[in-house]
């Protein structure tokens, strides 16, 4: 429970791996820390995470659970609320307002809110995200590499992504989806054995 206008050394907005790591280091530096988290992590649809030493194959939710336990042991205050506004500056400090209306004062703020994935406007994309519609070959490539894969074009870097993904997939199609492919990109895709499907 928060006291009215408690003053913390640092308020961290975002309770993913970055926010939790920042909270851990600051708390171990004997700073008073509050971590505010809306509870909607980017990787929520993913059943497992990979490439994280000692936690390969872990459920992302389990990693966050362990992180919250660790920071709590150092006295970090965890507030499971989204921040709705923040005012102030580095000279005078900041006041953050959370969903329930309470205010939290902090000398410094760390924004660890991550990124938001913008999904293609394709029916079913939201439901498939993190299961069949994937964005990171380092996270999912090993598990899906033996099947047929496709790279959705019409986004910056899609051809380069297809060229990279080829090392995981023996059967790969580049879905141009109405976008124009340069002669050089077409040559590179063909050289790597990547089929191009032009239709929408």
Short note summarizing the structure:
This protein has 200 residues and is α/β, with parallel strands linked by helices. The protein has two domains: 105 residues, FAD/NAD(P)-binding domain (3-Layer(bba) Sandwich), CATH 3.50.50.60; 73 residues, FAD/NAD(P)-binding domain, CATH 3.50.50.60.
Task: Explain what the structure shows.
The protein has 200 residues and is of the alpha/beta class. It has two domains: 7-111, FAD/NAD(P)-binding domain, CATH 3.50.50.60; 125-197, FAD/NAD(P)-binding domain (3-Layer(bba) Sandwich), CATH 3.50.50. It is built from six helices and nine strands. The strands form two sheets. The chain has a six-stranded mixed beta sheet, covered by helices on one side. β2 (33-36), α2 (60-72) and β3 (77-79) form a beta-alpha-beta unit.
What share of residues is helical?
A: 25-40%
Structural class: alpha/beta
Largest sheet report:
6 strands, mixed
Number of strands: 9
- CATH fold annotation of the largest domain: FAD/NAD(P)-binding domain
**Spans where pLDDT lies below 50 across 5 or more residues:** none
Q: Strand sequence of the main sheet, in spatial order?
A: 3-2-1-6-5-4
Q: What is the overall silhouette?
A: elongated
Number of helices: 6
The CATH architecture term of the largest domain is 3-Layer(bba) Sandwich
How far apart the termini lie comes to 53 Å
Q: What count of domains describes the coordinates?
A: 2
Radius of gyration: 22 Å
Q: Look at the structure and give the mean pLDDT.
A: 90
CATH superfamily of the largest domain: FAD/NAD(P)-binding domain
Strand residue percentage: 15-25%
CATH class of the largest domain: Alpha Beta
Order of H and E elements: EHEHEEEEHHEHEHE
